[in-house]
Amino acid sequence: MAFAREEGRLDPAEFTAVVRASGLARPVDDAARMAAMVAGSNLVVTARDASGRLAGVARSFTDFAYGCYLSDLCVDPAFQGKGVGRALIAETKRIIGPGCMLLLLSAPDPMTWYPKLGMERVANGFIIRRDG
């Protein structure tokens, strides 16, 4: 598996296909919104197999100094259970560095998976939900 930074280069259709396959709840039927999501991210880490097939994506927003919000972590089902998600998180953390915290808001199903990676559950947050 090859890991790389692909912000500004990841094809939105390819991203959308992996998000759709992974089951992550995102607006996959809105191509313009998915393209804007990719274009607006300043850290996009990908995992690709030997043939170049996109296996997974970690899409984040960060200042590379203090904070990083990992907005999307998705792995194609064909590659799940093989450490791809764990490696995408590790590569994201390596890139942002030790002085930068990594924050992720989880979907309900993987809530028990993240603590196994050494991630701490936090309860001190607030949200204004999107209107659409």
From TrEMBL:
One of its GO terms (molecular function) is acyltransferase activity, transferring groups other than amino-acyl groups. Keywords: Transferase. Residues 5-132 form the N-acetyltransferase domain. The keyword Transferase applies. InterPro entries: Acetyltransferase_Butenolide, Acyl_CoA_acyltransferase, GNAT_dom. Transmembrane segments: none annotated. The keyword Transferase applies. This is N-acetyltransferase. It comes from Dankookia rubra.
